[in-house]
Amino acid sequence: MQATRKEFIIALDEGTTNAKAVVLDSCGHIVVKFSQPLAIQTPRDGWVEQSGELLVEASLDVIAKAVEHVGAENVAALAISNQRETAIGWYRQSGKPINAAISWQCTRSAAFCDELRRENKEAQIKATTGLPIAPLFSASKMRWLLGSVPEGHRLAERGEICLGTIDSWLLWNLTQGKAFYCDHSNAARTQLLNLQTGQWDNEMLALFQIPRAALPDIKPSCGLFGYTRGLNAIPDGIPVMAMVGDSHAALFGHALGELGCVKATYGTGSSVMAPVQSAKCDIDALATTIAWHDGDRITYGLEGNIPHTGDAVSWMADSTGLSELSDAELAHELNTLPASVGSTLSVYFVPALTGLGAPWWDDSARGVICGLSRGVKRAHLIRAALESITYQIADVVVAMRQQDDFHLTALMVDGGPTKNDWLMQYQADLLGCPVMRSDVAELSAIGAALLARKALTPGSISDLKGFLTEHSEFIPDMVRHQRLQKRWQEWRHAVNRTLWKPASST
Description:
The protein is of the alpha+beta class. Helices cover 34% and strands 23% of the residues. The chain has two domains: 8-255, 2-Layer Sandwich (Nucleotidyltransferase, domain 5); 257-499, ATPase, nucleotide binding domain (Nucleotidyltransferase, domain 5), CATH 3.30.420. Strands 17-18-16-15-21-22-23 form a seven-stranded mixed β-sheet, with helices on both faces. A six-stranded mixed β-sheet has the order 3-2-1-5-14-13. Strand 15 and strand 16 form a beta hairpin. One of its GO terms (biological process) is glycerol catabolic process.
């Protein structure tokens, strides 16, 4: 490919199941993309982990292919969007991980989180970090990592062990240890960041027993993080100009943080995030986070995290034999089976496979399929799995409506499951608001690339509007919306069956 200037931005989207490199040209159009699958290990019940070395290997591989395709001399910058909350530790001198990367899905630190609740630390943690106590977040995982190696805490205090989220791990490897940073959005997911100061909080560091010397410095999501260095297939000197959590990147890629445009990413799990103007949130069931720092100011986000959405459908497809089909055949079945039956015959699937996230936050909950009868077939079960996605997202939106500065104009959606038209229409009908599906699947990569573009050509956020992608609109049927409220109420009764302490239905 020929180019006359450095016009390309390569965005690495390092997710839970795939590492993707997406090349965007000077008009923001996707030129080419490369992907490599990532393995997940579950060595014990509730434990979910990944090889940190394989995460890097896959990421460098797809970046190298992208660089080769367009020519290193034509690459203006790299941008990184990454799976959030996943934590990893490594030895500063060798760069070798001290243990596997502990996935955001992992609940091995649940017992410690219970201790914090018994010690009545929840209010303090929520007030400082914006996050409820849950093993989802990075701090308790980092504490576990230090305890997993001899003298881990002492080595960390001396700066001999580094702790980070995946953005900092990738940056360290891209720069051969010359750059040790994370961005505000990833730092905000650790439970160690003070939302008011935008810096690591001493009281939280002490509470989770994390030495400051082990942590990266925090930088805005948009700006220079470092340069590639010492890599076999990637030339030296390519600047890394943006790093941001993948859900935050998707929110930015949808509408640049416009109020009222609430984002739902449908992936292995789901993040429902709304841009808000303040870090203050009094809703226990939701997290307040930093959506991004664009180099000029911080944008905050109100968020609910759901661990099992697309994962729930995959589990049901596997359990009903559909996973033996090819990808194309499976997609066809998931689109047609739910529409082939008029309802689930009152079957509800609550996919609490490693606990429930927002708005319930119950690590002890386990999944349930209720309402089974003799007439229930595979189509009803698949439909129940797909409906479970819409109900979980709607539950988070209901919680968000308690926030004074929350607005819902449209639900902006992205991720693999959004290709299912039936699912999107059901979501629109359930919520009673338009669902706007991105016509480009790589929205996290696009969001990260847009932040990098702002860093390369400083200006206002509004200058990026011309780079936004098109959306397909699903308009709600308000008559059906009213009918679905009864089913939504029945879903909440099903949720109560999974909870350690049943909640009252609202």
